[in-house]
Amino acid sequence: MKLLKPSWVSHNGKPIFSVDIHPDGTKFATGGQGEDSGKVMIWNMAPVLREEDEKNENIPKMLCQMDNHLACVNCVRWSNNGLCLASGGDDKLVMVWKRAALIGPSTVFGSSSKLANVEQWRCVTILRNHTGDVMDVAWSPHDVWLASCSVDNTIVIWNARKFPEMITCLRGHTGLVKGLTWDPVGKYIASQADDHSLKVWRTVDWQMEANITKPFSEETQQIASSQ
């Protein structure tokens, strides 16, 4: 394994909380804290993979910077087809981004003229339903649905083909929901939460298929006994 940590991948010294590589491997997105808002950035993968590209000043490192989120960004996830990027943050919002046509580089707002967007990514949809910080987002196989989870203990399923239409809101966790993942076929979605449970939900009727707590309750007891 080779560990790479490019010094130029930075949010101006602010924390980065999420990273996701584009399906075609040519770029990656980061999400985190900005100067006075949330920040989403898209980076070129070539300078990461090849030292000669990193040293070549004609090859851009930063492709686009987006400061639309009103608070810290906790997660960024590319759609499976690579056409969209979803981000969720402490502003209780989920934003969906798509690449727009660009006529020449555009200067990043509030920066020196040297910092320019090589690609233009625009927020095409803002999804509003959560009443707390959005912790994670996940695209279903074939990008039919987009799921988001939050500090408000819920998981929202969005119709990714008819944004901002909401399919359903999954309730059952008694603690903040931290993470989501779909099965490869799209028949189930699993959620993990601060209530020491992992729940599996069926997509055919959006009902709970399984509630797994035993491994996490034993782990909690071990931590308590060690203290």
TrEMBL record:
Belongs to the WD repeat HIR1 family. It comes from Characodon lateralis. It comes from the Eukaryota. Residues 1-218 form the CAF1B/HIR1 beta-propeller domain. SUPFAM superfamilies: WD40 repeat-like. WD repeats lie at residues 66-98, 127-168, 170-201. InterPro entries: Beta-prop_CAF1B_HIR1 (IPR055410), HIR1-like (IPR031120), WD40/YVTN_repeat-like_dom_sf (IPR015943), WD40_PAC1 (IPR020472), WD40_repeat_dom_sf (IPR036322), WD40_rpt (IPR001680). Gene3D superfamilies: YVTN repeat-like/Quinoprotein amine dehydrogenase (2.130.10.10). Keywords: Chromatin regulator, Nucleus, Repeat, WD repeat. The keyword ATP-binding does not apply. It is found in: Nucleus. It holds the Pfam family Beta-prop_CAF1B_HIR1. This is CAF1B/HIR1 beta-propeller domain-containing protein.
